[in-house]
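Researcher: Hi, I'm a grad student and pretty new to this. My advisor asked me to get structures for two proteins we've been looking at. I'm not sure of the right format, so I'll just paste the first sequence and hope you can take it from there.
Model: That works fine. Here's the first sequence with its structure tokens right after it:
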Amino acid sequence: MNAPPLPVPTQLRRMSRFLVVLGLVNGFALAFALGGNLRVAVAALAINNFGLVIVVTMIRGLLNRRTFL
């Protein structure tokens, strides 16, 4: 019944996709929670996407076997 474990790069790719989707949903939820103002929404998404870029870059670095500080 149990599937064999996935190779590590596949797991990391799936995790990075999940983090991107989660970050976008989280950004919209945060924007609406702060009042639904368009400027607030854009600022929340910009901050959120900056954090996501760092996370995805670190995951890609792991995929490429590069070291990140």
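Researcher: Oh nice, that was easy. Here's the second one.
Model: And its structure:
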Amino acid sequence: MKQNRLMAAVTLGLFAAAGVAQAADGWYVAPSVGYYNNDKDRLTEEGSVFGALGIGKYFNNNAALEFAIDRTNRTNDWPASGSFQNMAATLTYRQFFGEGAFKPYVLVGGGASLHERDGFDRGWDFVAQAGAGLAYDFSERVRGRAEAFYRYDFDDESVPGADNFGDWVLALGVQVALGEIAPPPPPAAPPPPPPPPAEPHCSELDSDGDGVNNCDDRCPNTPAGTVVGPDGCELQVAIDLRGVEFDFDKATLRPESRQTLDEATEVLRQYPDIRVEVAGHTDSVGSDQYNQGLSERRAKAVFDYLVGNGIDSGRLNARGYGESSPIADNATREGRQRNRRVELVVQ
């Protein structure tokens, strides 16, 4: 009885003095106390308490092997006096599960038990045990555990006419880490910053919005609305339609106008990206309303000629201006003739 009290005191003392980190090499001590539910064939009282002390080692966070010695003193039912003492030395494997503070586990092990019963031979017999338990991590150094296991004792000497006994065992204990404190694992390295977005290739950029990519643009930052050529520079396109004039009150092309329009067609073919306005004009003879319609018919005549010679209609915009934009004096015959015209305005 004094022994059991001593083991309990040791257990509580170690528990109270525990630190805060598991040993770096995995070694620990494990004092415990418990209760035997004795096999009735032992001819002892139904239950007895015991004390145990173990030393073990973790091989990883959840697997440990422990050597322990426990001792109990049973009270005999037969013979009526005397004592029956047992001391067991066992090697037990425990497998823990989970990563939280509470960890269920299973155990399996074996060893030898020394039987000392008054009036019988003193001897060692093999024991085997298996069971389960629940552990709780009070800190990184201290782990409490409660377990129940079945111990099978191959004792064939301590009770006349009876061999082999099975006892149920309940135990409460702690594991206290030994040695240096294992440093906490270093924090995970922060992920590398994402790579900067790839700079777009100059062929994908048009900084001045002139329709020519930056690779090919030899004249960057051209003003908005500037008509540019394939090199991004302002397009110097001269489309001279002088000579494309019309008879009085007519919207039909003169034969001599066709050569001028053919030259304009060739210029438009050389620069397929430019767009032009086909602008029709009249002299001042007649009403404004009539001259507006006449100028539109003249613009349409030139428009149709250019389209008929292969110029995409989407590049052309026919518009009449009536008598609003004279280039010569309408008071003279020659001035009025010059004002009856169509112009191509590059846009």
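Researcher: Is there anything I should tell my advisor about the second?
Model: You could mention this: Residues 288-308 form the longest helix (21 residues).
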